[in-house]
Write a structure and sequence with these properties.
By secondary structure, this protein is α+β, with helices and mostly antiparallel strands. The chain is built from 13 helices and 13 strands. The chain has three domains: 165 residues, Alpha-Beta Plaits (2-Layer Sandwich); 58 residues, 5' to 3' exonuclease, C-terminal subdomain (DNA polymerase, domain 1, Orthogonal Bundle); 121 residues, Dna Ligase, domain 1. Helix content is 40%, strand content 19%. Strands 5-6-1-7-8 form a five-stranded mixed sheet. Strands 9-12-10-11-13 form a five-stranded antiparallel sheet, covered by helices on one side. Strand 10 and strand 11 form a beta hairpin. The longest helix has 33 residues. The radius of gyration is 24 Å and the shape is globular. It binds thymidine-5'-triphosphate and magnesium ion (2 copies). The site of thymidine-5'-triphosphate has 16 residues, from strand 1 and helix 2. One magnesium ion (MG) binds next to loops.
């Protein structure tokens, strides 16, 4: 039964591939017939094979920072708490599950959170503790596999296709990992198990908190078809809105849309969504030994729009960044400036150099150069951040002073206070 389902899905993939080849051949034929020597737009056709042999686990801790605080302080247990600074401009890093029914969630202003939940207890974050817990989680993961890809402090993918204890079922490993996290760290995690990262990630979110969910290859298509588009990985609120306008509300709707249409609308994400809708995601679990980025950022008490004030804050941020780089003996080739405006709009500007960025003299002139590209006269600045990243595409990009837009993963900016 399982084999026949797999065969059906494989057949579906083959059919899809055949269709893709058909599209490609038609494109060439059309080009030949019209004989105009005009190149039709190339589609990067997702000719991936759907490998269902892998066993991938995604682990994500439940209300991570808040659970650690409740674990370490019994007075906070069972109460609505939010992690963050209790200041006018404070932002909620996360909220305990007791606070969530009030509508308190990550990235919300602390002021609004307290209005929504007057009982809310605001607890300052202790990043060095969260980092240590994260290290302990990884010790547990390593008992099963060394193929671990950390996504953030509280989240990682594990490839357990071949695992150290030789356990046959990935779900058994997930169960054991959850139990060890509970016994040793006194915290709960949710786990998702499937044959690729996309599905494992969605699965871990299905039964939070303390959840365990497996998406079996034979049920994958059915599961994806019923999945609301907002739940798809990499579909943020903006993409979801666009999809809604296109009449796409579920995975089944997404599967109806052609690769070309998706590529026209979503660019290089088009083929990714096209594949996701078919349960295809052959990205490997990438072991990440090395820290890639180090940065710091500040939200100001009052929005800044005067050049002098902005330059002073930029200078302070550079000083702090240099202190951190020194402490961790870290250096990179790319400097990124992050600016959040009063209306929460956020931009990043980056510059990549051939020489390493380590000292104040390396960084300050570049930071000023990046800031000069930002027009803040009519858009006062709420937050400034700077980070140094290990060479980005250094092998392929030798252009000095090349501007690139960068997404900065949230966790790259988290640092131990005082570091
Ligand atoms: P998440 O795993 O996104 O959230 P969570 O663990 O708090 O809750 P859930 O049970 O839904 O997984 O993030 C992990 C930690 O990262 C979180 O505890 C706090 C921090 N964080 C922020 O500081 N800011 C943010 O905007 C987000 C999303 C997370
Ligand atoms: Mg979490
Ligand atoms: Mg997480």
């Amino acid at each position: 039964m399982f084999m026949s389902q797999c065969a059906k899905l494989t057949k579906l993939t083959i059919t899809t591939k055949f269709q893709q080849y058909f599209v490609e051949s038609s494109r060439l034929l059309l080009s030949f017939l019209t004989n105009r020597f005009v190149l039709l737009p190339q589609l990067s056709l997702p000719l991936q094979c759907n490998n269902m042999e892998r066993k991938i686990i995604h682990i994500d801790m439940d209300a991570f920072f808040a659970s650690v605080e409740q674990r370490d302080n019994p007075e906070l247990r069972g109460k609505p708490i939010a992690i963050g600074a209790d200041v006018e401009r404070g932002v909620v890093a996360t909220a305990s599950y007791e606070a969530r029914p009030f509508g308190v969630h990550s990235a919300m202003s602390m002021r609004i959170a307290k209005r929504r939940c007057p009982e809310l207890i605001v607890v300052p974050g202790r990043y060095h503790v969260y980092k240590e817990v994260s290290r302990q989680m990884h010790d547990i993961f390593h008992e099963y596999t060394d193929i671990i890809e950390p996504i953030s402090l509280d989240e990682a993918f594990l490839d357990v296709t071949h695992n150290k204890p030789g356990i046959g079922l990935a779900v058994d490993i997930a169960r054991e990992i959850k139990a060890k996290i509970k016994d040793r760290l006194h915290l709960t995690a949710s786990a998702g198990v499937s044959y690729n990262k996309f599905l494992a990630k969605i699965a871990s979110d299905q039964r939070k908190p303390d959840g365990l969910c497996t998406i079996h290859p034979s049920r994958a298509q059915e599961f994806i078809d019923a999945l609301r588009i907002e739940k798809f990985w990499l579909v943020g609120p903006k993409t979801a809105q666009t999809m809604h306008r296109m009449g796409i509300f579920t995975g089944a709707d997404l599967r109806e849309v052609s690769l070309k249409h998706l590529t026209d609308v979503f660019g290089k994400m088009g083929p990714v969504f096209y594949n996701f809708a078919r349960g295809i995601d052959d990205r490997p679990v990438v072991v990440d030994h090395e820290r890639k980025s180090m940065g710091c950022e500040h939200t100001f008490e009052h929005d800044l729009y005067k050049r002098g004030a902005v330059l002073i804050e930029l200078n302070n941020t550079v000083n702090e960044l240099v202190r951190r780089l020194e402490k961790h003996d870290f250096e990179g080739h790319t400097l990124t400036l992050k600016v959040k405006f009063h209306d929460f709009r956020q931009i990043t500007r980056s510059i990549t150099l051939d020489n390493v960025l380590r000292t104040r003299d390396d960084i300050l002139p570049l930071a000023k150069q990046l800031l000069a590209q930002v027009d803040y006269r009519d858009h006062p600045i709420r937050l400034l951040g700077l980070s140094v990243t290990k060479s980005i595409n250094k092998e392929t990009s030798t252009t000095v002073n090349q501007w690139i837009e960068l997404e900065i993963p949230f966790t790259e900016w988290q640092e131990t206070p005082g570091e």
